[in-house]
Design a protein that fits this description.
- The structure is a single chain.
- With 161 residues, this protein is mainly beta.
- The chain has a single domain (20-151), classed as Jelly Rolls.
- The protein is built from three helices and ten strands, in the order H-E-E-E-E-H-E-E-E-E-E-E-H.
- It has helices spanning 8-12, 80-84, 156-159, and strands at 23-30, 36-44, 49-60, 65-73, 87-88, 102-106, 110-113, 118-120, 126-133, 139-149.
- The longest helix is centred in the first third of the chain and has 5 residues, at 8-12.
- It is elongated, with a radius of gyration of 18 Å.
- The protein starts with 7 loop residues before the first helix and ends with a helix.
Length: 161
């Protein structure tokens, strides 16, 4: 059955098996001391993506902290002002301030959020990670999301009662 004309609320009520293959989109940076760096994912998100999982991993010497920001964009930023204009992956995630907000990633830290099932209007953009090393430190930061697309058809047997 064609469900292209369904509302997002109706589509989100479908079982997970209707959403098709899930795939990982990730980005990582090995920070350089006293610098701001950017990385962009190789894969783009679908136009309307369902985000299932989000994770951050920091590796390095104990006690080292790096400031990070996440956004969606088409090109790799080359300046902080360019990153400021991008849409955040999660609105309101991070320290209070303008989006995309910053959050700290510490060496030895990991954060894994699963069972999110959030709709993200990504319009084919890619995940961008910004890191700012505030002192002479080196930390490896890995960020990833697991997404799928929005279904356009479902088997008729799902809707028959």
């Amino acid at each position: 059955m064609d469900i292209r004309n369904w509302s997002m609320d109706q589509i989100m009520m479908l079982p997970d098996s209707c959403f098709g293959r899930r795939f990982l989109i990730s980005t990582c940076i090995l920070t350089a001391p006293l610098s701001t760096q950017w990385d962009i994912s190789e894969l783009a998100l679908p136009d309307r993506a369902i985000l299932y999982e989000f994770f951050i991993l920091g590796v390095g010497a104990f006690g080292k902290i790096v400031s990070c920001r996440l956004a969606l964009g088409d090109q790799l930023p080359t300046a902080t002002a360019e990153m400021d204009r991008l849409e955040p992956l999660f609105s309101g995630f991070g320290q209070q301030g303008a989006d995309p907000r910053s959050f700290d990633a510490a060496a030895g830290m990991s954060l894994h959020l699963d069972r999110l099932r959030l709709m993200v209007p990504a319009q084919g953009r890619r995940l961008i990670l910004e890191t700012t090393a505030l002192t002479g430190m080196i930390v490896f930061v890995l960020v990833g999301i697991v997404v799928s697309g929005i279904p356009t058809e479902v088997p008729d047997c799902l809707l028959s009662v």
